[in-house]
Design brief:
By secondary structure, the protein is mainly α. It has ten helices and no strands.
């Protein structure tokens, strides 16, 4: 492959990375909240397994992004799913003693599932944005998403560590995610109401 062919692909890859990283900041907060009550070794596993599952779903979404634009109610459904994540996280913060009586394997599975659900529901906009930037280059799109999601996993680890040191920050994170959820529900409802 010569430089003239490689350079446009590298530019597209950089665009995909930047768009995904800029739009995925709130995802790191959700992931940090999801693993907040787990011991450190389970926290790392939950983050990486959850992100791996979310990456597979993101790539599949991105490859079908143009078809997704025509699915009415997708934003509303994503907002409702995210509201469920907020409720679960707030419940665990409000009654942490219930979290610690649950078996560690169940808590790990619940955290992984919450990461995947939250990432899928929050990623609709940035998946569509990076699919548009990829200009029909699915391999560049997939590579960009894998790298940016890996960086997001690193950011989520830092957020989880901050939440361990400063537990009150978890409520700030929940407020941010609640805002995103309500915005998605509002926008999704407007889309349904204004659809001919």
């Amino acid at each position: 492959m010569d430089l003239a062919t490689l350079l446009p692909l590298l530019v597209i890859l950089l665009q995909v990375l930047l768009i995904d990283l800029v739009l995925a900041g709130d995802n790191a907060v959700v992931i940090g909240l999801a693993v907040n009550g787990l011991p450190p070794e389970q926290r790392r596993r939950a983050i990486w397994y959850g992100i791996a599952g979310a990456t597979i779903v993101r790539i599949a979404f991105a490859l079908f992004a143009l078809k997704m634009l025509h699915i009415l109610g997708l934003t509303l459904a994503g907002g409702i799913l995210l509201l469920w994540v907020v409720w679960k996280s707030a419940r665990e913060l409000h009654k942490p003693e219930q979290t610690h009586t649950t078996k560690p394997a169940s808590r790990l599975r619940a955290a992984i599932w919450r990461i995947i659900v939250a990432d899928v529901s929050m990623s609709l906009d940035n998946v569509l944005a990076v699919a548009g930037a990829a200009h029909a280059h699915p391999y560049v799109l997939a590579a960009g998403l894998v790298v940016s999601v890996g960086l997001m996993g690193f950011a989520a680890t830092l957020v989880a560590q901050l939440l361990q040191r400063f537990p009150w920050m978890a409520w700030v994170g929940i407020a941010i995610v609640l805002y995103v959820s309500l915005t998605m529900i509002h926008d999704g409802t407007l889309q349904l109401l204004h659809h001919p």
